[in-house]
TrEMBL record:
The lineage of its organism: Bacteria, Pseudomonadati, Pseudomonadota, Alphaproteobacteria, Rhodospirillales. GO terms for cellular component: cytosol. Residues 96-300 form the Alpha/beta hydrolase fold-3 domain. Pfam families: Abhydrolase_3 (PF07859). This is Acetyl esterase. SUPFAM superfamilies: alpha/beta-Hydrolases.
Length: 326
């Protein structure tokens, strides 16, 4: 490897995309080719391009018995939520889901099928949280709303027909960071929830790692340029990058619920999940690490056509159900 440049996926010829993922990725970029230079786009343009690219992947899939738009009380505003029930009238465990998108992109529509697949896999309602995004509402707004959603659902779920006493948190990418932060929040912890937490390819505080250096060039989608774009719009000029909520690996990780950690092999954030797994174990906690080989960051969005992605979602759902049965 030449000195003076970041490592890229081209330096590891043995690492190859899953063939189904390769086909899906090509189709995705055909819908919005300028997502390769997402960091150069205005935020609203980036959001529109992302919606367009993801729309085909939300078609089809499990049919819900009901879908309801509602709100939970938040620290500065009512927080919009979407409740997806796979079966009518069933009192089943609830999954509170936080979508990804770097705290800047994404919404409940962009992750609609992911939530429906998760509801079908767990057999219980999924509650998607439409949390605050930057740059309109910067850090720590999303973190505060995530914790408030846990507190509200655990205490007031009954008014929405939800059993907040049997609660699972789940999130992908930025949503995984929010789910972990909610688990660490004192007010949320005081509720005794959740029973388990499913974290898919999150960023948990590493600023340098082998995977970040290896995939900095963004050969498989997410790279350092995109990560810088998200940091810029999420934190803004006055944000504190040293806030403990942005670096959970440096804090006290004891007393957490059982964690399912899914790491994407071809992802600059891969080693964040590995580091969190071992620190949880060192703190005496329960953690299962699952490495999704041949898959890049964001793979859950492609569960309709990538078998390995669908298997990873199912593995997390099975972990949650096992924890609830304990």
């Amino acid at each position: 490897m030449a000195e003076g440049r970041p490592a890229t996926a081209r330096d590891e010829p043995a690492l190859r995309l899953d063939p189904q993922m390769l086909a899906a990725g090509r189709r995705y970029l055909e819908a919005a080719p300028d997502l390769r230079t997402l960091d150069e786009l205005p935020v609203e343009t980036a959001r529109a391009r992302t919606r367009a690219a993801r729309a085909p992947w939300n078609e089809g899939g499990p049919v819900m018995a009901s879908v309801e738009e509602a709100e939970l009380p938040g620290p500065r505003r009512p927080v919009p939520i979407r409740i997806l029930r796979p079966a009518a009238g069933a009192q089943a465990p609830v999954t509170l889901f936080f979508h990804g998108g770097g705290f800047v992109l994404g919404d409940l529509d962009s992750h609609d099928r992911v939530m429906r697949e998760l509801a079908a896999a767990t057999g219980g309602p999924v509650v998607g949280v439409d949390y605050a995004l930057g740059p309109e509402r910067r850090f720590p707004a999303a973190f505060e709303e995530a914790a408030a959603a846990v507190v509200a659902l655990a205490g007031e779920g009954g008014r929405l027909g939800l059993d907040g006493r049997r609660l699972v948190l789940a999130g992908e990418s930025a949503g995984a960071r929010l789910a972990l932060s909610a688990c660490l929040d004192p007010a949320a912890r005081a509720t005794g929830a959740p029973a388990a937490c499913l974290l898919y390819y999150g960023s948990f505080g590493l600023r340098d790692s082998a995977s970040r250096r290896l995939y900095a060039g963004g050969a498989f989608g997410l790279g350092e340029r995109q990560l810088a774009f998200f940091r810029r719009h999420h934190l803004g000029p006055d944000g504190n990058p040293d806030d403990p909520r942005l670096d959970p690996l440096a804090g006290d990780l004891s007393g957490l619920p059982p964690l399912f950690l899914a790491a994407a092999e071809l992802d600059p954030l891969r080693d964040d999940s590995l580091a969190l797994h071992w620190q949880i174990r060192a703190a005496g906690g329960r953690s299962r690490l699952s490495l999704a080989r041949g898959l890049p960051h964001g793979y859950l969005l492609f569960t309709p056509s990538v078998e390995a992605a669908a298997a990873s979602l199912a593995e997390g759902a099975a972990f949650a159900l096992a924890c609830l049965a304990d």
